[in-house]
Amino acid sequence: MNEQIVVDFKESLRNVPGVVPNNNPAGGTGGTFRGFTATTTVRNGMAIQSYQSDPINLERVEVIKGPSGTLFGTSIVSFGGLINQVTKKPYETLGGEVNVTLGKYELSRITADINTPLNSDKTALLRINAATHRENSFQDFGYKRMVTFAPSFLYKASNRLTFTVEAELNKTNRTTIAYHQNLQNVPGLTNFKDIPLDFNRSLSGANLDAQLSATNILGEAKYKLSEEWTSTTNVAYGENQIDHSHQIYPQWGNDAGGVFFNRSISTYGPRIFTSLNLQQNFTGDFKIGSFRNRIVAGANFYNFRSFLRFTATGIYDKIYPNSTTPIPAINLEKVNALMANATQTNTESTQSAVSAYVSDVFNVTDRLAAMLSLRIDRFTNDPTLANGVINNTTAYAQTAYSPKFGLVYQLVKDQVSLFGNYMNGFQNVAPVTQPGSSVIDVFKPRQANQWEGGAKFELFDKKLNATFSYYDIKISKDTRIDNGVTIQDATSKSKGFEAELIANPVTGLNIIAGYATNNYKILNAAPAAIGKMQAQVPGKYANLWISYKFTRTALRNFGLGVGGNHVSSSFFDAANIITIPGYTIVNATVFFDQPKWRFGLKGNNVGNVKYWSNWGISETLSQYLGSVTFKF
After folding, report:
1. How many CB atoms lie within 10 A of CB 477?
2. How far apart are alpha carbons 609 and 615 in whole angstroms?
3. CA nearest 232: which of 40, 45, 42, 41?
C-alpha cells in the first residue's frame, strides 16, 4: 500500500486475486469476489457502519474467502467471504509520520500518524491517525471531500490484562453518481461502450451531493487466563448517517423523437444505520495426549437498525443525448422545488442475531490436521415500520446450524500441503432499499453448501509462496439484481478457480500475482432467468505487481514498481442483454525511501483506459500522484 501510494481504500484490494474493487451507486466501498459483494463493514473482526473508509488507519487489509470467512458471522459477511480492516495499534515508543500527497484532478491530501506513550512505565499508549482528502472528478462535475480522525488508546492493566479503546470518526461530502436503468429499452444497445454519452460527461450537477458521517467505537479486553487459554471480550458500536443523498437514475427509453433518458431523482435522508456487536471468545492451544488442539469458542450478539426517510423527487428533465442541445447540469434549487411537492416516506427495520460457535483444529499426526466447527445462529427480523404502520408480514425468526469440516495434509513437511473443507450455512440478507423507491425489502436468509480444495506451497526458504484452490457454492433462496432491483427467487451455483503467487526471489525484488475465474449461474428462478449468469459478476480476473528496491550502490533505497489488473466483461442486467466491457489497466511507481523521509511518484491507469466498474459506473482515467512523507 505504501509503494502504491494508496489514497483510496478500494485501490488496496487490487492486489488480491479474484477481487474487483468498486464503489456502488450509493457510495459504499467494497469488492466483488467469488460472485458476491463484501463492503467496508468489518473492522478487527467486528461489525461497524461505514460507507466510506479512508486507508489512513489501516495496518493491513485481510480478504478472507469462502467458508473461513463465513465463520465470522452470517450477519456481516457474504458467501464469498469478508474484507476485514485491521487497524493500527499503539506501540511503546514515540514516533509517527506526516504525509502530503498531491495529484491530478485537484487531489490534495494531508495525513498524520502520531504515536506516544503517556506515562513513564509505558502502560498507557496513545496513537492518533488523521486525514483530510479533497479531490475532484475526471468528469465535468464531481468531487469528494473527506475528513477522518481515528484515535486509539491501549492500557496495560497488568501482565495478563490489556484494554484497547479506539474510535473512527469520518465525514464525507461528495457528488452523487448516476445509476443507469432500463438500458435494454434502447434499440441496438448491448454494451456500455455504446451508450450515447461522452465518457467525461457527468449527469449530475456541481452542487447535487450527498452528506455522510460515520462514528465507530470499538473496545477490547484481553486477559491471559493461563499459558494455554486467553479470554477476549469485544464490543463495537457503529453509526452511519446520511444527512441527504440525491440519487440520479437515468431511465432510458425510445420514442418518436429517438433515444432518450429521463433523469429521475430520488432523495434519501436522513438515513441512519446503527449496529451493536458484542463478542466473547476463548482461545486455547493445548495437548490431549499427543494431539495438539487449537480451539476458539465463543458467543456473539448483533443488533442492526435502519431508519430511512425517502422522497420520490420525480423526473427532473428529459434528455435526447443525440441532439445538438447540450446536457445541462442539474440545479439543486430546482430539485428542492420538486421535493417541496413530493411525498415523504419514513421506514424503519431492526434485525438481531445471537450466536454461539466452537472450532477445533487438532493434529492427528505432525503432517495431518483436521478441523471441526459448528456455529449456531438465532436470527430475528422485527416487523418493519412504514409511516407509523407496522407490517407484521415482514417479521420472522430462524435458527440455523452451520457445520464445517476441514483437512490439511503436508505432502512435504512445512513446504507442500493439500487442503479441503466443506461448510453448510446461511447468510442473512440486509434490508434493501430498491432504487427510486421508498420500499425497504426484507429478505429471507440465503442457504448454501460450499466446499473448497487446493494446495499450498512454501518453498526455497519461504521465498516462494503459492496457493491454488477450487471452490463450489450452491445457494438456495438466492438474490439476483434486475435493473438495480433486488429479487429473491433463485437457486444458483457459483464456482471457480483461484491462484496466488507471492515471491521474493532476490533481496529487494517482490512479486505479487494472481489469477481467478468465476462462473455464477442461476439454476432455478423465474423462467426467463434460468441459465442466466448472475448480473454484475465478471468471469475472469488477473493481478500483478512487481517492485524492486535497490539495497546497494548509489541507488540504495531507490525503488520502482509496475503492475496492473485485468477484469473480464460481465452482464449488467439479469436478462444478460447489456454487457459491461472488460478492461486491463496498468499502474506504475517510483520512490526513494530514507529513514527520515520518503518521496514517491505514482501513475494510475497510465494507459488512460476508459472502463466501467461491475456496477456500471465510469472509473477514473489516468491520474498521477506525488507524495512526500516525513518520519520521526
Report:
1. 18
2. 17
3. 45
Alpha-carbon Rg of the chain, whole angstroms?
A: 25
- β-partners of residue 433 are 440
The contacts of residue 501 (CB under 8 Å, 6+ apart) are 464, 465, 466, 511, 512, 513, 514
No. of helices (H) and no. of strands (E), the chain: 2, 35
Distances (CA, A) of 282 to 278, 296, 438: 14, 6, 43
- Measured from the Cβ of residue 328, the count of other Cβ atoms closer than 10 Å reads 11
pLDDT tens sequence across 288-320: 888 899 999 999 999 999 998 988 888 999 999
* CB under 8 A, 24+ apart: contacts of 114-122: 115/90, 115/91, 117/92, 117/93, 122/92, 122/156
Cell numbers given for 334: 430546482
β strands within 444-531, DSSP E? 446-459, 464-482, 485-503, 509-524
Residue 121: partners with Cβ closer than 8 Å, 6 or more residues away = none
- The whole-angstrom separation of Cα 551 and Cα 158 is 42
Phi/psi of residue 561, each to 5°?
-150, 150
Q: What DSSP string runs through 212-273?
A: EEEEEEEEEEEEE-SSSEEEEEEEEEEEEEEEEEEEEEEEEEEETTEEEEEEEEEEEEEEEE
318/553 Cα distance (integer angstroms) = 65
pTM over 0.85: yes
Cell of 458: 512454501
Cα 526 from Cα 154, distance rounded (Å) = 54
Enter the DSSP assignment of 330. P
Q: pLDDT by residue (tens digit) across 23-56? A: 877 677 889 999 988 888 889 999 888 877 899 9
For 555, residues 6+ apart whose C-beta sits below 8 A from its C-beta are none
